Amino acid sequence: MMYDVNKIRADFPILSRQVNNRPLVYLDNGASAQKPKVVIDAVEQAYSMEYANVHRGLHYLSNLATDKYEAVRGTIARFLNAPSEDNIIFNSGTTEGINMVAYGWAMPRMQAGDQIVLSIMEHHANIVPWHFLRERMGVELVWVDVDANGDLDPQRVLDAITDKTRLVAVTHMSNVLGTVVDVKTIVQGARTKGVPTLVDGSQASVHMPVDLSDIDPDFYAITGHKLYGPSGSGAIYVKSERMAEMQPFLGGGDMIKDVHREHISYNSGPMRFEAGTPGIVQQIGLGVALDYMMNVGMDAIAAHEQVLRDYARSKLDGLNWLNVQGNSATKGAIFSFTLEGAAHAHDISTVLDKKGVAVRAGHHCAQPLMEHMGVPATCRASFGMYNTIEEVDALVDGLEFCRELFG
Ligand SMILES: Cc1ncc(COP(=O)(O)O)c(C=O)c1O
Fold this sequence. Notes:
By secondary structure, this protein is of the alpha/beta class. The chain has helices at 5-10, 37-49, 60-80, 94-109, 128-137, 154-159, 183-192, 204-207, 212-215, 240-245, 280-296, 298-317, 345-354, 367-373, 389-406; strands spanning 18-19, 22-23, 25-26, 88-91, 115-119, 140-144, 165-171, 197-200, 219-223, 234-238, 256-259, 264-266, 322-325, 334-339, 357-358, 360-362, 378-382. The protein has two domains: 5-30 and 298-406, Aspartate Aminotransferase, domain 1 (Alpha-Beta Complex), CATH 3.90.1150; 41-295, Aspartate Aminotransferase, domain 2 (3-Layer(aba) Sandwich). The structure holds pyridoxal-5'-phosphate. Pyridoxal-5'-phosphate (PLP) binds next to helix 4.
């Protein structure tokens, strides 16, 4: 079936609005994606007609909300082709997921001198929790660089593993360069050396089919707001063996079975790691967003974005005054660039915004990568399932205008 991008665009109400008297060209999907009407409607329906707390009530609405909320576990497992929904822990997004692993799994099992291997292109969400372990426990962070194209050689990651390595934590797709990492080779190679892996799937899960039964990582984090779902929704996949080793990170209601003066006992399965009233409606909205993506088809979305990537790459490569960072053959439709000469990334994004083109400027929560590339900041145009060839042209027109403006 033909990929009908206009039909998809019609599902996203915000895409028909204007910004600064120009049609909105939304190229900040790497930061957060827009929401289809089905998600917005599901959120409204959940609040207006179906709302109550989950797991608590013996009344109709509570049971209804619980059923809808719990069904999302299965949807996420299906979306990621995870072995079971029992491996899916709900949370507010990748940041919470990785912190949970750092506090609940890594901290109790690591000691001073132990090592965690990271790539230089991780998002701060997959850096700062490990820095906590460095600061508080003397754990060492071992960094693996990317090459000039922005590629991460899996062998270099595996070569960085020593008998002190306790975890390899890598992104599946860079939020700055768009590089897709061969995480399966890393996961398998690390496992033969007895080292578990955490994969940050925040970007990859949006842009391509993810098969966790094939990759088989120990941890895989996703974040709902990038997946066309509500902010504050998300999940982490945890392999059963790791889940059995992991201690609860947050304590409170829902994650316990019994609480007494002298002892407590925990709930079983993923709920053991889900303390307090969760993002009920957010998760329900995420389930609808994932169904929406699966209905369009992850292969079809990936193919559409590859067309955008190839077109954008050829257009941007033609601008010899633009420095596009990273040129990996595996790259997705995410472009980071600086303009030769003086214009700061923020100036470019401000000018583009006046043209209705929304991009992001800054370090993109990836400062070690910025240091590695020798730039303080870049401008980033990141595409999603609803973007068009014409929007690539709008970006290029806007950049040419910047070039004239800033010389
Ligand atoms: C690769 C990557 N990891 C982690 C995150 C953090 O996600 P969240 O802020 O939703 O927790 C992001 C979001 O920008 C990201 O792009």
